[in-house]
Amino acid sequence: MQSERSRAIPVGRIFMSVAAVAAPVGAFAADWNETHVFNPKWTPHAKFHNAQTIDLAATAAGLTLHEAWRPGRINRDRLRTAAIYASLFWVTQIPAPFFPGSAVVDPDNKLQPFTKWGIPINQVTGAAIMVPLLIAAYALEARRLPKLTGPGSGATE
Question: What is the pLDDT of residues 78-98, one digit of tens each?
Fold first, then answer.
């Protein structure tokens, strides 16, 4: 049986928001430097796609936050939509290393590979953490929905 306090704290939406915001913050922190955006070896078109990736992460985060926190009761459709938006950046990291000629890090990037406890910290590691976090966030929040919805609540399934 959940306590009143645990039902009041939307832990799932908080985790979902953290995963969503981590995407543009991480992309900006990792790429707005001489290894990516200011790398003279990169073609303008490669820089365009790098900017597109950062912009996509920021847009998906904004949409996630809007769906998860806008006024009104949250329902399964809103929760599912927020989870999908939050996962866009992370899920697309998974197949990216399998594209011809791609690599998780640039060979001349002196900042990589960054490791913690012997584990390389990169986009794939981020996806391996964030995708399960988002699944758990959705499940946690979905469990709260029966308590948030019902006759007269204004929410729909």
Answer: 999 999 999 999 999 999 999
- Spatial contact of 104 and 122, defined as CB atoms under 8 Å apart: yes
Residue 54 to residue 47: CA distance in whole angstroms: 11
pLDDT digits (tens, 9 = 90+) for 123-132: 888 999 999 9
Long-range contacts of 61-64 (CB under 8 A, 24+ apart): 61/20, 61/21, 61/23, 61/24, 61/85, 61/86, 64/16, 64/17, 64/20
DSSP three-state, residue 13: helix
13's CB contacts (< 8 A; 6+ apart) are: 68, 69, 74, 79, 82, 137, 141
Secondary structure element (H or E) that encloses residue 120, with its range: strand 119-121
